[in-house]
Amino acid sequence: LDALVGLDSVKAEVRKLAEMVKFNAARRHAGLPADALTSHFVFTGSPGTGKTTIARLLARIYRKLGVLKRGHLVEVDRSKLVAGYVGQTAIKTNAVIDAAMDGVLFIDEAYSLVLGGSSDFGREAIATLLKRMEDQRDRLVVIVAGYEDEMRRFVDSNPGLQSRFTKYIRFPDYSAEEMTRIFLSILSSQNYSCSKAAADAARRQMEMAAAKGGRTSGNARFVRNFIASVKERMAVRVMADGVATKGELQRIEAEDIG
User: How many other CB atoms are there within 10 angstroms of residue 142's CB atom?
Assistant: First the structure.
């Protein structure tokens, strides 16, 4: 958790969750009443802001603290829950939930389950999910994620969702500086290095991306795609004469940035 770039407010929320688990466990051990665990969450934010990464870390933390036996993450979207025929959606949704038992079920763009109107099979998926969340409340953590406004409308669309999803964690967009740090960190972990000119050029690219705003900047997703394009340009440059030294295979230059 601490190794992640940025996300200070999110990290603080996760630490509070962990401390509450330990606090309530200590109260139970002392024979005192303890609050029920906050098991289900709404993660809001733009794509590429670390929602899936934090969900995976939360699952591991809960396993370490004894809240979840397995602590794995099952990530799905509408297509993994909703079928095209009557009666098939409940079967499909139950199968996904079975796979997530004793771990975390992460539903990305969960608001898409209510976009089709009252006759859409997404409503059946929600009804199935709500029943299982109640029946297996001690063995399942559900996280729904998506854009902030859409997720609020999603939760407000059903009283059952309102009662079960009470904890919201907002994921802010990355700044240009944070995106640059992510860029350099990923490359360093893969044994690449950047010349000063390359790092400066990359920072300018991150500033342009960040200025577009969350829905179009791409955040960390943009950084990963950008790195892929940098490596392609680097490969063409380095292998131009068919021979490359170890240093040349590691060193990114300004011309590779694009």
Answer: 22
